[in-house]
Structures are given as structure tokens and as C-alpha cells.
Amino acid sequence: MNIYKNTVNFGLILILLIFFPSFAYSKNIPTSFADLAEKLTPSVVNISSTQIIKTTNQFPFQFPPGSPFEDMFKEFNKPTERKATALGSGFIIDKKGIVVTNNHVIQGAEDIFVSVNGSEEYKAKIIGKDPYMDLAVLQIESTEKFIPVSFGDSDSARVGDWVIAIGNPFGFGGTVTVGIISSRNRDIGLTRYDDFIQTDASINQGNSGGPLFDLGGKVIGINTAIIAPGSSGSIGIGFAIPSNSASKVIDQLIKHGETKRGWLGVRIQKVTKEIAEVEKLEKPEGALVASVAEKSPADKAGIQAGDIILEFDGKKVDTMRKLPKLVAQTEVGKKVVLKIWRNQKLISKKVLLGRLESSEQFKAENETKPDTSQYVVVENLKISIRDLNKEDISKRKLPKNTTGVVVTEILEGSPLMFVSVNDIIVELQKKKITNSKQFSNIVKENFNKNEKTLYLAIYNSSNQRSYITVKLK
Q1: Rounded-to-integer distance, Cα 358 and Cα 379, Å
Q2: Residue tagged active-site, from 208, 296, 384, 436
Q3: d(CA 194, CA 177)
Q4: For residue range 198-238, what is the model confidence (pLDDT) as tens digits?
Q5: Any catalytic annotation for residue 35?
Q6: Mean pLDDT (whole number) for 284-302
């Protein structure tokens, strides 16, 4: 869970609450969740994954050619290996031992182990994974029969409904917390298809991949992220992937081992108030086409840069972020109608959707990563990085003079909760970053000075440049 990896701080806070026993409009409040928790807990599993991380030590200086110190310290510069363990949660959806969790829980894992009911531990293998929605499906390697749970209808879940989260926070398996649905359709910029259920049920590091249940014992969400400023842990703002969206992807992963999403082939951006005024739109809405991929479905249908997509397959595109979700959820090969605003007129275009996973864009984003021996671990920040190279700049279409470091891994307890793997850090404390060594040295300097805040400029996976601050202890 990249955005909430925080150090555990245990504290005791006493809060006095005044309880008003009845309201004319209130529904019956459960007197206890014990029966439901007892029934559901055997279906929730604890997941541990291990991976080997290669690191290379680097001196803050270099020896001159022929120096006798080169041989003396040559062992220091050799790559070293260490084993890292990640903890997460999951839940069983089939008696044969099929488990659902988050992709980031098992990402890069060498071995995966699943603990059922807090006792029996089994090895598991990956059936399929989807980094775009942060989902993964595992198979427990056992002939035993397990107790499954089923998905509910997340679309019928309402703000204010009771929910129950069960998981493995900080390694404390079988933990039950209760809250309500705080909001719906949250977009926090974590994945391409953000549409989270927000809850105030206590969710912490290790809850990733665990279920969010309704009072009927149905899974209506998969706990994925939290907002936790500094190292505060849960502050009652957690996010879960809705079951209706997740179940479609999970079904594909079980059947095919991969996803099959619709693909349009456009790069889009937000329609601002200023753009709406120039285009003579009544209000800012839709998705502005910034570019069209060559030979893509959109290109073949005659969609052009500068078009504003207002409707897709009969569904209104209220915001730019809504279009990718609509396209992805549509069947590959379906012919859809787009309503487009072009030259201050509304026109229609018929598009035969392609498959995202077959596109050059998808292949470029998911090709083999560089050799991990190039990675450098920045211990103070608990992240792994590598130098930005020309190939990165070309593939991501960054400015040619861009320099920086690519985040390759975020380790447990990292303070960089708003940074993700593959983000590019280009500035630190307003200093331009040139390579991993320089970045590491700047970090060390600021820690030695007891700086309380780091100020970074990054490019995210969508190549959007932004500034973020990181609070240090």
C-alpha cells in the first residue's frame, strides 16, 4: 500500500462521546457484530510475500584510477541481496481456495503464503493480476475445502450504511473493525480507474486486500488505501474498490489469467472553465482529446485532437476521469456511439472498440523492468530508486533534458505515502536531481540537518508534474 506505509506509533486517546438514544428517523442499530464477525472471519486470510532485493553500495566519492584503495574496497561495491517481507490481507471466494487481494500486496513476490483462520499456513500461486485496478487472484495450493464469501451489490450501498472490515493490520491477523460508508465514487489519483468507497472503519497497513462487508455478510469492497498524514496511522479515511467493478476484473483473471478491457486510443485532459468558455460549452464537462494514437479505434473512427467527448455509449461523461472507466468496462469488439463537441457543434461518431492489453501503450507500460542490480536503496526514506535513462525519457515522452531518479520500490514504513512505483523524482529541496547518488546524498544532508519537511517535484505514471511535501519525524 504505497501511499500509507507508515511507522507504527501506539498511543492512547480518550474520547468522551454523548450518546442520544433515539431519533424519529433512525433505523435499528445492531447491538453487536459478534455473530457476523464469527461467521466471516474464517474466510479472511493473512498474506505474507517475500522477495529478494538487490542493492549496490555507493561511495560518496571516487578513487583516482590506479589507487591502491580500489582493491581494498572493491568488495564494498559488489551488489548485495536481502530478503524483504510484505504483509497484507485477502479473502476466499471459492471453496477450492481461490483468494482475492491487492496486486501491490504480492507485487514482485518470490514466495506467497496464506494463513487461514489464524493457524494453518499454505503456499499460494498467482492466477492473475491487474496492476491497473490493483487486484490479484491467488490459488491456495491445497486439496482442502475452504469457507468462501460472496460479492454483494456495491451500487446499492449508501452513504451512512454500516460496514465491517476484517484483515491483518500490522500483522495482527483476524482484526475486526466497524464503521460506515463515508462517501462514494472517490477519485484519489491512486489508479487509472479510481472509483473508491470511502469508509471510516479503521484500516491500517496490512489491511490491504481485505474485504469490506455489508451487514448481510457480502463483500461490497476491497480495502486498498488510506489517508494517513505523517505517521498517524488510521484517521478514519479509508478507501475500498467497489465489488461491482472488482468482480468483473476478478472473473476475467480467473477465466483467462489476464484482463480484457475496451480500448479507445486517445490521450485526454480535463476541460477547464477557460476551455469551456473558448469552446462555447455551457459548463466544464467531458474529456478533451489531447492526442489520438495512430491506427487506434479512435483514429479509424475519425476522432481528432481538440474534440471534447461528452457521451460514451449512451453514458454521460461528466468529467475527464470518467471516460477511461466507461471504456474499460465495455466489451472488446463492441461498436459504440460517441457524442463529441467539435467546432462548437455536437456530432456523433461510431467506434469499434479494441483491446487495451493488445495496444502498444499497454505493452510499453508493462514490459520487463530493468535489472534490479541497478537499484539503489535510500535507507532514510525506505525506497529503492534507479537513474532515469534516455529510454525512459523516450518512452514516456518527457522533455529531452529531464534528469532524475525512478522509484522502483517503496518499502515498509516509508514516509513517501503520496509517491508510487515508477514515479520520477526530478527535484528535491528545489535542487535538480541528476542521479541516484546525488539524490541519496541530498537526503542524507537533510536528515543530518534534522529537516522536518522534504519538498519534491515528481512526474507520476501519467507524466503529470507536481510538487509534494513529505513530513519527516
Answers
A1: 38
A2: 208
A3: 24
A4: 999 988 888 889 999 999 999 999 999 888 665 556 788 89
A5: no
A6: 92
Pick from 334-348, 408-422, 435-449 the range whose average pLDDT is largest: 334-348
Cα 106–168–160 angle (5° rounding)?
A: 110
Which cell is 366 given? 508493462
* % of the chain exceeding 90 in pLDDT: 47
Which of 48, 49, 104, 154 is catalytic? The answer is 104
**Closest among 127, 121, 156 to 139, alpha carbons compared:** 127
Closest CA to 135 of 159, 102, 109: 102
Question: What does the alpha-carbon distance between residue 284 and residue 263 come to, in Å, rounded to a whole number?
Answer: 24
Q: What is the CATH number of domain 39-140?
A: 2.40.10.10
**Catalytic residue list contains 208:** yes
CATH 2.40.10.10 spans which residues of the chain?
A: 39-140, 152-256
pLDDT band at 447 (very low <50, low <70, confident <90, very high): confident
Q: Where in the chain is the domain with CATH 2.30.42.10?
A: 265-352, 368-471
Give residue-wise pLDDT tens across range 26-38.
456 778 999 999 9
The Cα–Cα gap between 91 and 222 comes to 9
For domain 368-471, the question of CATH label 2.30.42.10 is answered with yes
CATH of 265-352, one of 2.60.40.1600, 1.10.10.60, 2.60.210.10, 2.30.42.10: 2.30.42.10
Residue 104 designated active-site:
yes
**Topology, domain 152-256:** Thrombin, subunit H (2.40.10)
Model pTM above 0.90: no
User: CA-to-CA distance for 212 and 161, rounded, in angstroms?
Assistant: 12
